[in-house]
Amino acid sequence: MCYHEPHESRTMNDAERDHVGAGGGLSTAADAQRPFSWHDVRSLLRRREIWGAAIGQFAGNSTVVFFLTWFPTYLVTERHMAWLKIGFFAILPFLGASVGVLFGGWLSDFLLRRTGRINLARKLPIITGLLLSSSIVAAIYVKSDAAVIAVLSLAFFGQGMGGLGWSIISDIAPKRLMGLPGGIFNFTANIAGIVTPIVIGTIVAITGSFYWGLMFIGAVAVLGAASYIFILGDIKRIELSEAGAAGRIS
């Protein structure tokens, strides 16, 4: 696979190039020389849009980490499934997540085409997905193995829809500073990768049950939905002062 910058493309027409440029997607020589700056980090961290998206990403990734780390152990110790049965059942939630990723992207594009409202098109699929992820707590109360897997598949399907958060980052990132917001966004996802296994492991070790572990995942998913609703605000490109950056580049 090869990659080149939009301005280097031999197949892009002028209309496409203008569209990419209007969205801040065309780089220049000055952009390539722009060094990492803690000033830029602090400026971004003062923006509610970054915090709203980052908390939402932490919440969504917490569900992923549960499935990647504690899911098989949960089926064995809490649901008493045989390892042979787990081998089949463990596939289904991941299939659900894969479908959720595709469905969330399709739904967002559909809503944007039909309404032209980017807030609705981006937020509705993600918030819906996070609320579906919170349904993981229902696994505590169902009895049959099939019902448990159905609940977990629905929760992971919802998390897949939440993968649309990267579209929000591309929509709000300042022009000429596209990578740093994504780095902050992904940083919070990796914090979830550290925190979630430890929290669930500690809960299981203390209580001998996954009850509060699943409650934790459900509560964090609701927190993520609330973050997109109340903290993120309108989805629009962040405008940062170029004065400090210009001085460092020259």
From TrEMBL:
Pfam families: MFS_1. It is found in: Membrane. One of its GO terms (cellular component) is membrane. GO terms for molecular function: transmembrane transporter activity. Residues 1-236 form the Major facilitator superfamily (MFS) profile domain. Keywords: Membrane, Transmembrane, Transmembrane helix. InterPro entries: MFS, MFS_dom, MFS_Na/Anion_cotransporter, MFS_trans_sf. It is a multi-pass membrane protein. It comes from the Bacteria. Gene3D superfamilies: MFS general substrate transporter like domains. The keyword Lyase does not apply. The chain crosses the membrane at residues 50-71, 83-112, 124-142, 148-172, 184-204, 210-231. This is MFS transporter.
